[in-house]
Amino acid sequence: MAVSIIMLERRARYLMGAAAVVAVATLAAFEMGWIATAPHYKENAWYLVGGNASFIVTSEYADEAACRREESASSVCRPGKALLEEAQAVRPGQG
């Protein structure tokens, strides 16, 4: 009985240690900018924008002509500057 409690306690300590490491790594990734909640767009790039109300899928292009070649009924080309302005209007005071 005592051996099983010791084994259970050891596994619980390992599990909590692993959870703490994951939490610290996630926090560090947010702080270092590896993970961001706000979208980042380049002002001088063009983006092919598709998706739905829940999420947006973007592909970056160097110029408008390259973006327009890939445009379809379900996706539209937009300049990065317009996407930045839209993102700032949705999240005022951020960025």
Report on this model:
The protein is an alpha+beta fold. The protein has two domains: 1-35; 46-90, no CATH class. The chain is 52% helix and 17% strand. It contains three helices and three strands; from the N terminus they run H-E-E-H-E-H. It has helices at residues 2-32, 64-70, 80-90; strands spanning 46-51, 56-61, 76-79. It has a three-stranded antiparallel sheet. It is elongated, with a radius of gyration of 22 Å. The N and C termini lie far apart (57 Å). The model has no long low-confidence stretch (mean pLDDT 86).
Give the tally of β-strands.
3
Strand order of the largest sheet: 2-1-3
Mean pLDDT: 86
Specify the structural class: alpha+beta
For the biggest sheet, the summary is: 3 strands, antiparallel
Number of helices: 3
Shape estimate: elongated
Helical content, roughly? 40-55%
How large is the radius of gyration?
22 Å
N-to-C order of helices and strands: HEEHEH
Number of domains: 2
Distance between the termini: 57 Å
Low-confidence blocks of residues: none
Proportion of residues in extended strands: 15-25%
Question: What's the SSE blueprint?
Answer:
Layout (H helix, E strand, L loop, with lengths): L1 H31 L13 E6 L4 E6 L2 H7 L5 E4 H11 L5
Antiparallel strand pairs: 1-2, 1-3
